[in-house]
Amino acid sequence: MVLNYIWVAFFIIAFVMAVVKLVLWGDLEVFPAMMDATFSSSKTAFEISLGLTGVLSLWLGIMKIGEKGGVVNLLAKALSPVFVKLFPDIPKGHPVTGSIFMNIAANMLNLDNAATPLGLKAMEQLQELNPKKDTATNPMIMFLVLNTSGLTLIPVSIMVYRAQLGAAQPTDIFIPLLLATFFSTLAGIIVTSLYQRINLLNRTMLLTLGGAALVVASIIWGFGQMDSLLMDKVSTSTANILLMTIIIAFILAGLRKKVNVYETFIEGAKEGFSTAVRIIPYLVAILVGIGVFRASGAMDLLIDGIKWVVTSCGGNTDFVGALPTALMKPLSGSGARGMMVDAMTTYGADSFVGRLSCIFQGSTDTTFYILAVYFGSVGIRNTRHAVTCGLIADLAGVVAAIAICYLFFN
User: Fold this and answer.
1) Could you read off the pLDDT of 102-159 as tens digits, one per residue?
2) C-beta of residue 208 within 8 angstroms of C-beta of residue 145
3) How far apart are CA 80 and CA 84, in angstroms?
4) In this structure, which long-range contacts are made by residues 345-348, counting pairs with CB atoms below 8 Å and at least 24 apart in sequence?
5) Rounded to an integer, what distance in angstroms lies between the CA atom of residue 295 and that of residue 36?
6) Do the beta carbons of residue 365 and residue 143 sit within 8 Å?
7) Can you say whether the dihedral through the CA atoms of 125, 128, 133, 139 is positive or negative?
8) Are 345 and 166 in contact, with CB atoms under 8 Å apart?
9) What gap in Å lies between CA 71 and CA 190, rounded to an integer?
10) Handedness of CA 30, 287, 310, 329 (dihedral sign)
11) Which residues pair with 379 in a beta bridge?
């Protein structure tokens, strides 16, 4: 519903803007430009979706091998001591714990098809423990915030889009994105724990969060000592080594479980093909809306306004062109994806704005969509502090993404 209003607003604002330019300044080119944008944007959307088919099939095939090879289960067991501390209200040994672990692990591995069913199952099990069926419990909210903070280890789809749009090194955003999503998740955990009075000052959480923070600080410090050329080479090389290691690890895990890795890969690749086809109408819709909005001059007016505010405050305005992706992400994943593609198409996949839009896309998740789907599935009306905590995590991810992008790519 939110995306419906946004999409309609794109066209109405664009039309009003075009009429103003025509009447006040006699701009006869604005309406032809808007019509050209509708056709060119729809063609771009189809070409992108078509080009995604091969790479998306490859990665979903690899992910399916990892899923059946037990990687998700292994990651869930590794996270178990941490999540027990984050969900103190869940009875020890309750089956919902396993569903939560599996959902978070699947999200971290970017297994969307597995993560959503597991998440809905976890929410149903949490509802069984809920004494007030229309009000979100503390474990429900913590679970939702962990989802909305967007913690992802393998941002497959973003790298695929970068490859499709001509990035020289599609994986160069891998390390920066991991850092940004870490800060988003950390902020979400801290603020939710404060609301719920969960004590994070225990041995398990201090070791986990402190150790992760130390690793992230070391990475930032290490890259801060390098010049831009060396930083780019090290970041890209590290990302490629990690990704290839993950691929081999997934295949070996499948062999160890005596999985037919070839047939499993084909099964996952089929899902990749169907996914690429399924997103065509959504991508066409959002890119046409954005194209008309931009061609009317409304996008430039919005960006120039934000630039004026930032400049007045003495700030650097290089990041402003990527802000539409950040503003759209809490509302709609497909809308933010369209903004990201538009930024890379307009400014270039390897531009500062293009890279930052990708990091925005991957550093958080669709807060309102996740809240609507998960809470709606069990009839929750009173969401308590879920929205506040989710949006604070989003804001932390956006701020971290800007700072990290300046560090790596400015």
Assistant:
1) 777 767 766 555 566 678 888 888 999 999 999 999 999 999 998 888 777 667 778 8
2) no
3) 6
4) 345/44, 345/165, 346/294, 346/321, 347/321
5) 9
6) no
7) negative
8) no
9) 28
10) positive
11) none
197 in Cβ contact with 139 (< 8 Å): no
Q: How many CA atoms lie within 13 A of 320 on its CB side?
A: 17
User: What's this model's pTM, rounded to 2 decimal places?
Assistant: 0.74
Q: Return d(Cα 338, Cα 275) in angstroms, integer.
A: 16
Six token digits for residue 359: 């990091």
CA distance linking residue 57 with residue 51, whole number of Å: 11
Are 399 and 334 in contact, with CB atoms under 8 Å apart? no
144 vs 240: which has the higher pLDDT: 144
List pLDDT tens digits, range 170-198. Answer: 888 888 888 898 899 999 999 999 999 99
Instruction: Choose the most confident range, by mean pLDDT, from 15-19, 302-306, 325-329.
Output: 15-19
User: Two tokens at 200?
Assistant: 């994070």
Q: Is 91 exposed, middle or buried (0-12, 13-18, 19+ CB in 10 A)?
A: exposed
| Cα separation values, 141 from 48, 62, 146, 148, 149, Å | 36, 32, 9, 10, 12
Banded model confidence at residue 330, pLDDT cuts 50, 70, 90 = confident
Higher pLDDT among residues 19 and 338, named by residue: 19
Contacts (Cβ under 8 Å, ≥6 apart) of 115: 103, 106, 107
Contact (Cβ atoms closer than 8 angstroms) between residue 100 and residue 83: yes
Q: How far is CA 141 from the centre of its chain?
A: 19
Phi, psi (deg, nearest 5) at residue 35:
-65, -40
Backbone angles phi, psi at 10, to 5 degrees: -55, -50
* pLDDT tens profile 186-236: 999 999 999 999 988 888 888 888 888 888 788 778 876 777 667 667 766
**Which tokens is 219 given?**
């990475």
- β partners of residue 382: 135
Distances, alpha carbon 277 to alpha carbons 46, 51, 54, in Å:
9, 10, 11
Looking at every residue in the chain, the average pLDDT score rounds to: 84
Band of pLDDT at residue 237, cut at 50, 70 and 90: confident
Contact 381, 127 (CB under 8 A): no
